[in-house]
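Quarterly update, task 2.4: flavin-adenine dinucleotide-bound model.
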Amino acid sequence: MGHAASILTDDTPIFQISDKNPNFADLGVLGSMELLDTMGDDLSIVNAARVSYASESNEFDAERDKKLVKFLAKHKHWTPFEQNSIKFRVKCPIYIARQWMKHRCWVFNEISARYTIFDNTVYKPDDFRKQAVRNKQASDADSGDINQELASEIYDQATKTAIDSYNKLLELGVCREQARGVLPVGSHTEFITTVNLRNYMHWYMLRAPKDAQWEIQQYAHASIELVKQKFPVAIECFYELQAEASTDAEQLKAMKNSLKNN
Ligand SMILES: Cc1cc2nc3c(=O)[nH]c(=O)nc-3n(C[C@H](O)[C@H](O)[C@H](O)COP(=O)(O)OP(=O)(O)OC[C@H]3O[C@@H](n4cnc5c(N)ncnc54)[C@H](O)[C@@H]3O)c2cc1C
C-alpha cells in the first residue's frame, strides 16, 4: 500500500479516495471503507421538516434551505435527519469493529469466521505509539524512545505464530468456529453497516476527535468525505455548529476565568 498507517503529527488523515470509485476510501494497511448506498439527500431533510406545514420543495434552495437545515440541527429537531440512511462496507481490524459496534443505532452484518476461512490478513501499524501517561486509555503521538524495530519484530512473530496455529488446527480437522480462537484481535474483519444521518453524526463526533483511538479516527475522517458527497449542506451545517459551539465554550471559559480573577 502506498500510504502509511503511521503516527502523523501534522494530523493529515491517511485515507485516499479511489480515482476509479469516488465512493471508496483506501486506508492502506488499516483497511478500507466504501459508501454502498444512501437514502435521501439535503432536500429530503427540509421536506421532512416542512411536512409539518403541509408543504414541500422540489429543489434545494441554497440559502433558505441551508438556514432551515442548520436551524433544525441547532435546535435538536433530529427526526428530519433520521429520515436519511447511509450504508457502508468497512474493512478494519477486529478491535476497531468492536468499538464501532458499541454504537447501538447502527445495523451490522459481519463476515463470519464460522462460515469462512480467515484470509490471514492482520493489521500491522507502521509505527508503535507510546502509552499516554495521563490518559489511561490513550496513546501518545510521540513514539519517543520505543525501539520500533524490536516492536515490529515481536508483533510479526506473534502474528505468524497465531496464523500458523490457526492453519494447523484447521489441518487437524478442528472446526473453524473453534480454530478462530487463536487469531489476534488485529485481524481484519469486514462488515456492512447502515445508519441514519443523525446517528452517523453522533458517531463522527465521538470517533473523530483526538481522544478516540487513532485508527478509528481515520475511519471517521474517511467516512465524512464520502458522506459529504451526498449530504453536502447537512455536513457543512454540522461543521459550522461544531465550530460555533467550540467558540461559545472558549468564550464561556474566558468569562469564567475573568470572573475568578476579579
Ligand atoms: C473515546 C471513547 C472511549 C470509550 N471507552 C469505552 C470503554 O472503555 N469501555 C466501554 O465499554 N465503552 C467505551 N466507549 C463506548 C461508549 O461507552 C459508548 O458505548 C459508545 O460511544 C456509544 O455511544 P452512544 O451510546 O452515545 O451511541 P449509540 O449506541 O450509537 O446511541 C446513540 C444515541 O442513542 C441513544 N440511545 C441508544 N441506546 C440507548 C439506550 N439503551 N438508552 C438510552 N439512550 C439510548 C443515546 O442518546 C445515544 O447517545 C468509549 C467511547 C469513546 C468515544
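Highlight for this quarter: The CA atoms of residues 62 and 108 lie 34 Å apart.
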